[in-house]
Amino acid sequence: MYIQDKRRTLFRLIENSISTKIFRNNYFLIDGKSKDILKNGELSCAFYISSILYLLKLVKDIHTTVQGTLKDLEESGWYKINKPKKGAIVLWDKDEEGHYHLGFYWNNKKAVSNVSSKKSPNFHPIKYKNRKILAFYFHKELEK
To answer: What is the CATH classification number for the domain harbouring 131?
Structure first.
């Protein structure tokens, strides 16, 4: 029997997701009209994070909101940590429009998340747009 190395797979999924367009769109019927609620990649952080985690069975579903993703993280065994580890989920404070932001912690200088201006996942400074980091989340299945 084989056991998936979720930690190593997560790292490769993150690296291989850089600049992909796959997380840009998700359409919902609103008042009978099909609407892209991710605004062509401007609001894709939760969709990106939860999709990657869903592939590894580390969350129960794919989400389009940060709040929905956070709820699923907690229900799926993710816990807050004080000292971040590679692959941890980063929660940044709200921006001027009231949106929280999620990403993957890479190292003490870099994170990976959906970058709105590029409309795709990319590496960027951990101090993302000078937003305060509110929390780091980790899962026991990513321990080595």
So the answer is: 3.90.1720.10
pTM of the model: 0.96
- Among 59, 72, 52, 58, which Cα is nearest to 114's? 52
Residue 110 parent element (H or E): strand 110-115
Low-confidence stretches of the chain (pLDDT beneath 70): none
- Asked whether the beta carbons of 137 and 78 are under 8 A apart, the reply is yes
Q: Which two tokens stand for residue 21?
A: 């367009």
List, in order, residues 6 or more apart from 79 with CB less than 8 Å away: 137, 138, 139
- Residue type at 133 in one-letter notation: I
Count of structural domains within the chain:
1
